[in-house]
Structure formats: structure tokens, C-alpha cells
Amino acid sequence: MFIDRITLHHLRMPLRSPFETSFGRIDARECILIAIAADGLIGYGECVADRDPGYAYETSGTAWHVLRDFLAPAVLGQDVAGPAAFQRQVAGVRGHPMAKAGLELALWDLQGKREGRSLADLLGGARDRVDVGVSVGLQASPAALAQTVEGYLAQGYRRIKIKIKPGRDVLDAQAVRRAFPDIRLQVDANSAYTLDSAQALQPLDDLNLLWIEQPLAEDDLWDHSRLQLRFRTPICLDESILSPRHARQALEMAACRVINIKAGRVGGLTQAVAIHDLCRSAGVPVWCGGMLETGIGRAGNLALASLPGFTLPGDISATDRYYAQDITVERFTLNADSTITVPSGPGLGVSVDPAAVDAFTVARLEIVG
Ligand code: OSB
Ligand code: MG
To answer: What is the pLDDT of residue 369?
Structure first.
């Protein structure tokens, strides 16, 4: 693929309702839409870094810088064989996985469009619909949370994740469990605890949770392994798993029993698939995490989640759980069996709505070779 032009759109998309986690509350989500023009086609990718460095160190600002000054120049005016070749070309750029993953996704979209194959097909997808759930942010009170969860269950979601933080953990989870004794329920702390403060989470072990996601710091596999010894409930790692090497080491030291895979966090789909393959051969279940993506990133997540090792429901909800207006023409809807259908058209299998992109663009940059 001869890369002629790369266009960056810094988007700010209003959320239908605020999303609050242990690291903050947002009313709108920021991301970078990446369009690559090559061989008469346009491929789209989404960089999931948000405005603030709360979930990860990357932000829309750092990603813009790294894309503009390092990643785009590495490929512009060149013949790039595909995503794997791109990864080799930018191997010298340390870190910044979300910036890399955004550009890589646009190359996958291009490759699929060129070959007339869907992304799911390119990645080795094994199913045409994937099990999904909803990730519910912190609410005003445990009672309000139970009510919000009830609303999502009524919409047909059969797996619920709730966000927790110190002081808003056991009572919240107990309220949901009491109201809905049989649902598939999990919690996500986004690194808000230490080995000591996580003592407060012990009562969660009696709530029949699917798992406890990322209780401790990103760079702390060791304490996760110590914490896992105290819980019957599996620990699932999100932030801590940045590469196949982290996944292997986390499993070797029993720091978790389940892994959340996000292409953005691990530098792209190439690495995401490698982590999937590693976990699959180790018999460890994985599921696809979410970053409140637009229809572009959501299409990529659905393709990834169609791989055979993704045996647990993903954080991939319907478009209307996030946005009144999305940037893709296609909107994703929930099927009656709590699944979402994987796009089957070439590449990502979705098309961009230019008027919607314009409406949400706060900065735009065209880079030519
Ligand atoms: O930790 O999984 C997370 C959103 C932004 C940043 C981190 C996380 C999340 C979610 C939302 O939980 C999942 C979704 O996209 O629905
Ligand atoms: Mg998480």
C-alpha cells in the first residue's frame, strides 16, 4: 500500500450520559480519527487516548504529537506491506501504544478493503456475533446504581460490569447483587487500590462475581499475584497487560486468571491477537475491553472479539449506550441474545459520515509525504 496522505481529526463527542470511574468523570469523549489515503482507497482508524492521562499516560495531545512527528513520517510516501510491516517500521518508537494502534487500525481497514475481506476474516474470526455486556460508571448511590443496572438489563444486556473505587465498592456491588441475584456481574477498580487498601474488598469474594478487574497499579504484577492468593474470585488484568510478555509473566506468576484485551492498550491488533493466541494455548479465557469507541473502533473491537479465544462477553455495547450521534453511518444494536453482530463488509465494514465528523472535529491536520 503506497501511503499518499494521512489526515488526523481530533474529535470531541458528547456522551449520552456522563461516565465516571475511579480516575474521573467525563461528559464527552475525545479521540483521534485517522484517515490514510493509499492506492485510491481510504482506511480509517481510531486512537483511543482520551483528553486526560487518567487511565493511561497517553492523551489525545501526546498521541497527536507522536502521530504527527514520528508515526506518520515513518510511513508517508512509502510502500507499506501491511500492519505487521508497519509494526516493524515503528519498533523504534518506544511506548505510545494507543497512537500506534490507531494508525495500525487504518492499515488493517485498507488491507481489508484492498483484498475485499472483512477485518474479522483477516484476523481469524470464528463467529459472526459476539457476546457483549455493559460497563456501568459510578452512580450517585448504591440504590441509583441498582436502578441504572435494571435499565440495562431491561434493554437486554446479560452481563454487567460496575466501576468501583475506595469507599464506593462493597456496598455498591452488594446492592446490585441483592437486586439481581443471578446476573453475570463483575467489578472494575481501574488501579484505585494498594495491596493494603484492597483489604476492604474482601467481602466481594462472597458475591459470586465473574472477576475483579485491575484492583492495583498498572506496573504491579507482583502485588496482584499476592492479592490473587487471598481471593477465590479471579483477578482480571486490564491496565497491567501492555504486551504479550506482560501477559505471559502475569500468568506465570498467577497475578490474574483472566485477561482483558484492548488493541489500543497493547499497541494494535497485531499484539492483541498475539496475546489472544498465548492465552488460548495456556487455556486462559480472554475478553475484549472497550474505551467508549466510536463506530470505527467498535467495528475493530467486534472483529477482534470474534476470535475463538474470546469466550467471555466484551465491553462492547450498542451505539446508543454511548452516543446520540456517531461518526459512522452504521449504528450497532444489541441482538435479543445479548450479542452484537460482527461487521462482514470489506475492512472495518463501516463507512464514515463526513457531516458527523465535521460536527465533532476540534482540530484537523493533513500530512502529505
Ligand atoms: O477500564 O475498561 C476500562 C472506559 C474508558 C477507560 C477504561 C475503561 C473503560 C470502560 C468502558 O470500562 C468500556 C466501554 O467501552 O463500554
Ligand atoms: Mg478496565
So the answer is: 75
- Please report, as a single letter, which amino acid is at residue 8: L
Indicate the pLDDT class of residue 90, thresholds 50, 70 and 90.
Answer: very high
Its pTM surpasses 0.70: yes
CA 4 to centroid of ligand 1, rounded, Å: 34
Question: What is the distance between the alpha carbons of residues 205 and 202, in angstroms, rounded to a whole number?
Answer: 6
For the segment 234-253, what is each residue's pLDDT rounded down to a tens digit? 999 999 999 999 999 999 99
Kindly identify the ligand whose nearest atom is closest to the C-alpha of 20: 1
pLDDT more than 70, % of the chain: 100
pLDDT digits (tens, 9 = 90+) for 356-368: 999 999 999 999 9
Pick the residue whose CA is nearest to atom 12 on ligand 1: 135
Distance CA 80, CA 85 (A): 6
Q: How high is the mean pLDDT of the chain?
A: 98
Counting ligands in written order, the one closest to the CA of 289 is 1
In ligand 1, the atom with minimum distance to the C-alpha of 262 is: 2
Confidence of residue 332 (pLDDT cuts 50, 70, 90): very high
Closest C-alpha to 31, from 63, 5, 70, 75: 63
CB under 6 Å to ligand 1: residues? 55, 135, 188, 190, 238, 289-292, 315, 317
